[in-house]
Write a structure and sequence with these properties.
heterodimer, A: 276 residues, mainly alpha, MetI-like fold, 14 helices, B: 294 residues, MetI-like (chain A), membrane (chain A)
Chain lengths: 276, 294
Amino acid sequence: MNKKKKLVKIVSYLVLIMIAVAQMVPLLVMFLNSVRSNEDIKKKLIAFPESIHLENFMIAWRKGGYLQAYLSNLVIGLAAAVIVLTVTGLAAYGIVKLEAFGKNAFRTYFTAGLSIPGFAIIATLFFMFHKIGLVNSRLGMIVIYTAINIPFNFMFVHAFFQGMPKELDEAARIDGAGEIQNFWYNVLPLAKPILSTVMLIVFVNVWNEFLFANTFLQDENVRTVALRFYNFVGKNSGDPAYIYAAAVISVLPILIIYMLMQDTFVEGMTSGSVKG
Amino acid sequence: MKQFDRRKLKGMVFVLPAFLIHVGIVLIPAVGMVWYSFTNWNGLKAPKFIGLQNYVTMLSDTSFFHALKNNLIWMAMFLVIPLAIGLILAVILSNISRGQMLLRTIYFLPYVVGAAIAGKIFATFYSPYSGIASVFKALGIESLSNFAPLGNGKLALYAVAFVDNWHWWGFVLVLMFSALHQVDRSLLEAATMEGAGPLRKFFSVTVPQIKPTIISYFTFILIASFTTFDYVWIMTQGGPSNATELVSTWIYRKSFISYEVGYGSALCTTVCGGCLAIYLLFTLVQKLRRRGEV
């Protein structure tokens, strides 16, 4: 029996590790190829670098316009994250703590809003924004990303507020604190962990978003990282080394944040999304 | 009492910013789309009401039905494959003691890589000039030395789905893994005492307990497979010659490339209506079954 258990354990680990390696291979190839030469990659897709070509990164960074793209993403991502955080925090506070009029209707609305696909709105929104000059505009993207990130993050913050003890608010109210003060001094400090999660989710979603960015940002100067990369590949298809270097530049910030905050990522992104 | 009402009113004011932003950017354009589906709008000129004409055109749009078929194939794949991989690995993972978190982190990692990056990296792998083909060539496998699935109408859809699955199953694994954590251990032990084998235990004890998570997964996929867009657009734009066309890419093409926004809206309304119907039917069945059980 014991021997059998040990065997099961060994096989389990073997399977798990082999699949983990397989899952990582595409990214490993990307990292390795980002420092190889174009000729070398064309001869053989998978190999260790014969010599290190760090200039690939300089070329990709400059050709791809990544300085501007990083700035775009920082501005759009942070602004959207802060606004989403503020409005979903307020909304969840209003519904959970103040028991707003129509709270059930609001909750149903946000739940339903979660499943309205980008497709159902993109054409109408595009021509609407076109009219008022919000196409090719960072402000336009901030507004869109704020709106589409509201439902998920509302549910997330809402669930957290519901789990918080009521006594605290009662105490604050007796002390005569206004709702804004209570929200700011009592609720927000307790909700700190959830706040960074919301910021993170929105920032990463904006970084990776493709459909809206591809439609609304046609002007080079406002394009986000994902879109810059998408266009870079189209223009440099003969130079795979630069493509891999550009890919590394495009994904590295997210990978670093992921490595530093994996639990926040995994829990934030999976909670409430597909779960019933 | 009055004070209480004032509080509720204040609460409503707190909800309004989030609500109004979402209504303005999502709900109004969504309703607008339904209206435009009855017009000949091209995005620029004033739309003219043409009744059901777009819907009539749709019925003879073979590309649309071809795309719909691809969506069904896509759905069939994603109902089964990521769930099977995710669930099986989650079960194995929950039975080991060390390295759980590290492995979970690795499996989940592709999920944080954006579609544009994953899609284009794999497209480069699939390239006949500098991709996997060169590996086959080096290995002396001549029959695969021209391996270029994205250019092959029979393989392209599966080659794209492979990438989406690579990105997605780790997410499913995490969902299943946390669902498995809530499975009642004592029931499993009882089953072991009565001599149930591992397979029997899995299907008779574990699966019934994580059923809600599995059902939410199915519901999600039923809808998501009709709205999926990124990977196909990024890797093939629906090509070669419509082989990977999905309803989403077809609608996108109609709205933004040939500027038949009214027609695109009609297709989109149909697809969204279909998704809504599936969703309602699913929740209804769930409710009836739950009532039946009680």
